Amino acid sequence: MKVKREKLMNFTADVMKKMGCDDEKARVVAEVLVEADMRGISSHGVARLKRYVNHIKERIIDPNGEPEIIFETPVTLAIDGNNGVGQHIAKFSMEKVIEKAKKYGIGMATVRNSNHYGIAGYYAEMAVKMGLVGISLTNTAPLVVHTFSREALLGTNPIAFAFPTSEKYPILIDMATSVAPRGKLEVYSRLNKKIPKGWAVDETGHTTTDPEKVLSNLKQRKGGGLLPLGGEGEEFSGHKGYGLVLLVELLTSGLSLGSFSYDTYKGKGKITHFFAALDPAIFGNPEKIKEHAMELINSLRSAKKADGKERIYVHGEKEYEKREKSLECGVEIDEPTYYELRKIAENLDIPW
Ligand SMILES: NC(=O)c1ccc[n+]([C@@H]2O[C@H](COP(=O)([O-])OP(=O)(O)OC[C@H]3O[C@@H](n4cnc5c(N)ncnc54)[C@H](O)[C@@H]3O)[C@@H](O)[C@H]2O)c1
Ligand SMILES: O=C(O)C[C@H](O)C(=O)O
Asked: What molecular functions are annotated in GO for this chain (predicted)?
């Protein structure tokens, strides 16, 4: 089903306003969720609106919570999100980081007591739009079973990294450090599809193709969960994926003195983030650096293709192409999500 961007944006913002957000906060949530759907990232689009509504009702999210700088140096910030809306806190933090990077060449921020912020790439992209290299990381609910364990303690902890290029779009690597994020299991579940073997394990630690089972076990903290990048055990380097999950956990919750993933969503969200921006100008001529990166990108694209493959991509490319299509033809959302949104509209007495 296709819906016009503006309609989806206005509706999402109206829902957040009805839940107590001011215009600015409502707008940024709408923008980040709708951007995800526009890019084809349906795991993190408007389908997540119901969760935010519930989190506000359960007081996990304070719709009026404002971020507060609790420590600052010329190039770093430590921010307390005061349990506010994740997208608002993240945008505020990345803006501060960008200011520092523009002034001193680098900027970094840790954030604690925040909430789910949507696609990590949105904030890395804010930096790249200003000509900077951008990094955005977050921890999450406990969702990932680390190598040789069958208990989810760590998060799907995404890494987003944006690098400026001299073509229309930057390189935008935006990925969970697990084989799949929880959101992808939600997509499979609402479409009544089995997940591939190797994405997740059940409470016994064995691979399962049943997304409902994994999601329900995770909700009840009953055991099992998503596998780190590389999958189960050490054979395909699951231990290296586990290392990446841990790296994100330490830069977010570790540096911010915030809650580790296993202590999130106990009363409040308590999610932590890390943001960084780097001005290429502190290493040389930014235009030359962009051109240099282009040489690499073009070499990668024009490499000999594997049998049966017609095109080689770089990171971000698929999503940017999908975004252009969405702008032209409307934003694609699946049927269950469409009906869910209409239900939210009905429950909150908001026109759809
Ligand atoms: N807020 C949170 O708590 C949270 C947690 C986990 C994930 N997420 C978000 O979930 C979203 C989806 O994550 P994902 O891991 O499913 O991403 P994905 O697997 O769909 O894509 C990962 C990256 O690979 C790139 N890519 C895809 N196919 C490619 C190819 N053939 N060649 C080169 N590059 C290719 C994409 O452009 C993207 O940068 C991300 O936006 C992430 O930030 C958020
Ligand atoms: O679902 C979460 O809480 C984290 C993230 O958005 C994910 O999809 O893994």
From this structure: L-malate dehydrogenase (NAD+) activity
pTM over 0.90: yes
Check residue 175 and report its DSSP letter.
E
Q: What would the pLDDT profile of 76-114 be if each residue is shown by its tens digit? A: 999 999 999 999 999 999 999 999 999 999 999 999 999
Å from CA of 261 to ligand 2 middle:
11
Ligand 1: distance of its center to the CA of 48 in Å? 16
Q: What CATH number belongs to 64-179+235-302?
A: 3.30.1370.60
Instruction: State CA 102 to chain mean position distance.
Output: 25
Q: Which ligand is nearest to the CA of 157?
A: 1
Q: Whose CA is nearest to atom 32 of ligand 1?
A: 313
Domain 180-226 indexed as CATH 3.30.60.50: yes
What lines the ligand 2 site, CB under 6 Å? Answer: 43-44, 116, 140-141, 143, 156, 176, 181-183
In the chain, the N- to C-terminal Cα span, in Å, equals 15
Strand-pairing partners, residue 107, are 277
What tens digit of pLDDT does each residue of 190-248 get? 999 999 999 999 999 999 999 999 999 999 999 999 999 999 999 999 999 999 999 99
Q: Hey, which of 116, 140, 227, 245 would you mutate to test ligand 2's pocket, going by the most ligand atoms within 8 Å of its Cβ?
A: 140
Q: Is 181 in the pocket of ligand 1 (CB under 6 A)?
A: yes
Q: What is the pLDDT of residue 166?
A: 95
- Read off the tokens for 239: 């231990």
Is 2 exposed, middle or buried, given 0-12, 13-18 or 19+ CB atoms closer than 10 A?
exposed
Residue 89 phi, psi (nearest 5) = -65, -45
Provide the ipTM.
0.99
CATH of domain 1-58+331-352: 1.10.1530.10
pLDDT, one tens digit per residue, over 142-186 is 999 999 999 999 999 999 999 999 999 999 999 999 999 999 999
